[in-house]
C-alpha cells in the first residue's frame, strides 16, 4: 500500500539497524549503563511494540517509554468528574474510544454506560457538535483529551459552536501540553535520559522551536520522529549520532509532516480558545505547573466544568503503583510490584496499563518476548 | 413451535396488512400467527418437512446415514446494521451456525431460528431477512425446521436479534480439535482477513469513511469437505469470527499447549481493510471474519490442503500464515514485515480506536 509499505521496508530496516550497531560499537558505553532514549509519545510506544523495534536494537540502547499517552496520564479524580457529568440524565457524554476504559476511583465510563449513563464514542469533536444540533433537548458534553495534537480540533469545534450559537454543547477540557511535562521529567532527580524522540503529531502543531531549551539548557539531543517503524529507527540513529558527535540539537526527522514553525492556523485557534492552568494533575507524575489548559472566560459557556458542578476531588494513585518510576525510566514495566498480578489490561490499577499506548499495557500485550529474552 | 407448514396449508396462510410490528404480534393470538405465517412460514416453506408440532422430529436413521457423531451448536446474532455490504443478519445467522458445525467436520443438516423483534420494525424488513435466511439455507442444502418469535417493547432490544441452533453429523473417522496441534504443523487460512469486521464498522456510518469493503459472510461446509477429502489428517479448524484470527490462534495455542509463529508478510489482508485499519488505529488480526477458517495441518498434508483450498471458490486466496512451534505453551508470536517480532495476545475487550 502506497505511503505505508515504503516506511515498513524490512530491507531498509536492516541497513538502519546495522548503522545503529556500527555507531554503538564505536562508542564507549559501559555494559551496565546502556544509552537511555525516551520516546515521549504514546504513538511511538505503540509502533515500537507493534513492529518489534526494541528487539532489533543493540543491548546497549534502552528505550524509555515516556508520558505521552494522554489516556494513561489522566488522574482518577478527573475520570470521576467525567462520570459525574455523564450520569446526569440530561447529558449525552461523548468521548474518544480509548478513554472509555480508564478507571476512575469507582468506575470507568464503560461501567457508567452499563449503569445507564448515556456515553457515546465519537471520532471527532465535530461528531459531538452534530449530536448537539440533533438533540436540542439534551446537553452534549465532549471529553476534550490529548496533547496539542487534538487541542486544535476541540478549539475549532468550540469556535464553530460559537458561530452557530449552539447552547447545548460543552467541553470537559483535559487537554495537556507537552513542553512543561518534558521539563518536569528533565528536572526529576532520579532521571537518566540521554536523548529524546520528540512527538511527531504534537510537533506538527507546535513546530520544533519550543523544544530548543532541551538542547540549550539540559544539553540533551532530541529528534522529532514520525510514527512508522523506519521513522523510529532512523530517529534513533540520529539521536545516537548526535551523542557520538557530542552535539545537542533539536533535529527534525519527520519533516514531511512537521514544519519547524508549526501550524499557524491551529496555533491561532488554540490561543484564541484556551489559557494555561496554573497546574494540572498527572497520573503517575503528580502535579505539574502550567501543564494543562482550560477554556478562556470568553468561551465559559462551552466549559463543562463551569456548566456542571463537578466534584473536582483529588484522588491519589494507589500506593502499590510505580507508574511514575516506569515513566521516568527508573524501572522497567515488569519490574513493578503489581505488573501482571494486581494490574493487568483487564483491570488496570495504574495509568500505564490502561491504553494500548501505555508502556505497561504494551509490554503486557506485545512485550512478553522482551521480558522473556531479558530473563534468559 | 415449529415454523413449518405442510404444502397443502399454504393457500390459507395468514397475512399481515400493517406496515410495522406491534406488541400485538407477540401476544400469542391471531396477529402473531399471521406474522409467523406471512413472514417465516412463507419464506421457509419448501425448505422444511411437513410437521406442525411444538418440535421438529427426525428419524435417527436420517442422521446415522451420515456418520456416527451428532454435532450440536447455537449462536446469537445481534449485528447492527441489519443489512450491510455482502449480507444481512439473516444470511449471517444461517452461515454462522453452519460454519460452527462445519469446522468440527460435521455435515450441517437442520437449523432452528428464534427471533426477538423490537416493536416498530417494518414487516418488509422481516420478510427480506426471512427470505435471505431461506435462500442461504437452501443454497447450503440445510433445512430450517423450527423456530420462535418474540416481540419486545421499543428499547428492549435493538431492532432484531436472531438465534440459530444447528444439528449436523460428523462422519466416522473425522476427529478435529483445537487441542490436537503439534509442533511442526502448518497453519493456513482460506483468504483475506478482517473483511467482515471492517464492512460492519464502515456500514454503521459513524466513521464518515466510504469503503468498498464487503463482508466475507459465507457458508464454508463445502470448502471444509474439500479440505478433509484432500488432507484427512487435518488436526484442527476454527472459524475466525469475533476476535479475529489472533483470538483463534491463541485458543489453539492454549488448547494444544504449543506456541504458534506467524509471519506478518504472509497474512492476507486486502488493501481496503489495511487502509481502514491504518486510519482508525485498529489491528486487522483482531477484526471479525464470517467466511474464514484457521486450519492446522500436519506438515505432510499442508500442500494438499492448500491446493484443495485454492481450487474452491471460497479459498482462492488461501495461504500458509505460520507454523506450530515448540516455544512457550500458549504463546502466539508474529515475525513483523519489518523484521521484528511481537506477541499476538488475546484482546481484553473490544478494540477501541486510539485518540491519536
Would you give an account of this structure?
The complex is a heterodimer of chains A (376) and B (356). Chain A has a domain at 76-176 and 292-307: 3-Layer(aba) Sandwich (Rossmann fold). Chain A has helices at residues 10-25, 42-50, 76-86, 109-114, 125-134, 151-164, 178-187, 200-206, 212-216, 229-245, 264-273, 304-307, 323-327, 359-366, 368-375; strands at residues 35-41, 61-68, 91-95, 119-121, 139-146, 169-175, 195-198, 222-224, 250-252, 274-276, 279-282, 286-289, 293-295. The mean pLDDT of chain A is 91. Chain A is built from 15 helices and 13 strands. Chain A is an alpha/beta fold. In chain A, the strands form four sheets. Chain A has a five-stranded parallel beta sheet. A four-stranded parallel beta sheet of chain A has the order 4-3-5-6, with helices on both faces. Chain A has a two-stranded antiparallel sheet with strand order 10-13. Chain B is of the alpha+beta class and 356 residues long. Chain B has two domains: 7-170, PurM-like, N-terminal domain (60s Ribosomal Protein L30, Chain: A, 2-Layer Sandwich); 178-343, Alpha-Beta Complex (Phosphoribosyl-aminoimidazole Synthetase, Chain A, domain 2). Helices cover 30% and strands 22% of the residues of chain B. Chain B is built from nine helices and 13 strands. In chain B, strands 8-10-7-11-9-12-13 form a seven-stranded mixed beta sheet. In chain B, strands 1-6-4-5 form a four-stranded mixed beta sheet. Chain B has a two-stranded antiparallel sheet with strand order 2-3. Chain B is globular.
